[in-house]
Amino acid sequence: MESNLLFHEMWYAYQAYQETPSSYVNSLLNLDIEAHYAQYIYLQSLPEYSESQWEEGYRTDKRLIGTAGLQIYIDDTGFMKDGIDSVFLEDYIENKLIGAFRSLAPYKNYLYNETRVGLDNFFNLQNLTKDC
Fold first, then answer.
1. With 0-12 CB in 10 A as exposed, 13-18 as middle and 19+ as buried, what is 29?
2. Distance of CA 46 to the CA centre of its chain
3. pTM greater than 0.90
4. Which tens digit of pLDDT belongs to each residue from 35-61?
5. Which residues, including other chains, have CB under 8 Å from residue 70's CB and lie 6 or more apart?
6. Half-sphere exposure of 109 toward its Cβ, with a 13 Å CA cutoff?
């Protein structure tokens, strides 16, 4: 197994411990978006990322392109970048990213919790990178 895949699965495990059973099920797409962004951040830190199949995926796969696009709005610790309005992040998530995920069969029926707006979707990333 590649380290980034293990990282991704461990991220899910961490997320599950932060949720109730119902909040987990009702926020699966929110959590997947966060997990994929965290994995993207991790992948970029690896020396073997350059010219890898993963780098190629972030240039060609709609879901991965959408995930990488989050870096326009938020930093590697899950907080808004300077000069970016949270409305733009929410618009990006709702009008681009959700569709990119739901265009793929595994995510088609995942529930998206609309009460988690903008940065609320990245609270685990914020928590795990505190003081980093």
1. buried
2. 18
3. yes
4. 999 999 999 999 999 999 999 999 999
5. 33, 37, 40, 89, 92, 97
6. 0
Place of tokens 């899950």: 78
Q: Who contacts 21 (Cβ-Cβ below 8 Å, separation ≥6)?
A: none
Task: Write phi, then psi, for 125 (nearest 5 degrees).
Answer: -60, -45
Neighbouring residues of 14: CB distance < 8 A, sequence distance ≥ 6: 124, 128
User: What pLDDT sits at residue 123?
Assistant: 96
- Distance between CA 51 and CA 24 in Å, rounded? 35
* pLDDT tens by residue, 84-123: 999 999 999 999 999 999 999 999 999 999 999 999 999 9
